[in-house]
Amino acid sequence: MSPLIVLVGPMGVGKSTVGHLLAERLGAGYRDTDDDIVAAQGRTIAEIFVEEGEPAFRAIEKQAVREALAGHDGVLALGGGAVLDPDTRALLAGQRVVYLSMDVEEAVKRTGLNAARPLLAINPRKQWRELMEARRHLYEEVATVVVATDGRTPEEVTRVALDALELKEA
After folding, report:
1. Could you report the per-residue pLDDT of 135-147, keeping only the tens digit for each?
2. Residue ranges in the chain modelled with pLDDT below 70
3. Which of 64, 128, 160, 167 is the most exposed place for a label (fewest CB within 10 A)?
4. Residues 13 and 111: beta-carbon distance below 8 Å
């Protein structure tokens, strides 16, 4: 068993929204590893970051992604930093991975780059740019297709992703 589609990309790009739409159009289930982590840990991702730090969160995330890749056959959304782990990137090889991309101005519009995002708490625009500089090549490395979300509705992004992957709606 493996996912029909795996979504990667930065926080706020719309992985959850597009993931739900893709699942609906394909007649498949939807799963988000961030939701899995929150359910298993009984606390928010921000709380995990504050209480245990990023390395502890990344270890939890790595396990959640491994389990989801092995146990879900629908649409799977990964947290924005999941691709940082080389083992996770190796597990994504051979999967249908859609990298949802956006520029910083779109990120500002969508997320407001607010403090609820633990990695963006101080100087959000600068930190978002730095995160993307560190991660963009990793998203591209694992991607089967890249879909720009800037100026597109979730429905348009969904249609472009399905067309790029040559998948038919259920």
Report:
1. 999 999 999 999 9
2. 104-124
3. 167
4. no
Residues β-bridged to residue 31: 76
Q: CA 86, 129, 54 angle in degrees (round to 5)?
A: 45
Amino acid at residue number 71: G
Encoding tokens for residue 74? 């629908």
Q: Of all helices (H) and strands (E), which one includes residue 6?
A: strand 5-8
Q: Is 33 exposed, middle or buried (0-12, 13-18, 19+ CB in 10 A)?
A: buried
Q: In what order do the strands lie in the sheet with 97-101?
A: 30-32, 75-77, 5-8, 97-101, 145-148
Residues 91-95: contacts with CB under 8 Å, at least 24 apart: 91/65, 91/66, 92/6, 92/8, 92/142, 93/142, 95/2, 95/3, 95/6, 95/69, 95/142, 95/144
Residues 61, 17 contacting (CB under 8 angstroms): no
21's tokens: 């739409």
pLDDT tens readout for residues 55-64: 999 999 999 9
Q: How far apart are CA 82 and CA 143, in angstroms?
A: 13
DSSP per residue over 21-55, as a string?
HHHHHHT--EEEHHHHHHHHHTS-HHHHHHHH-HH
pLDDT at res. 115:
46
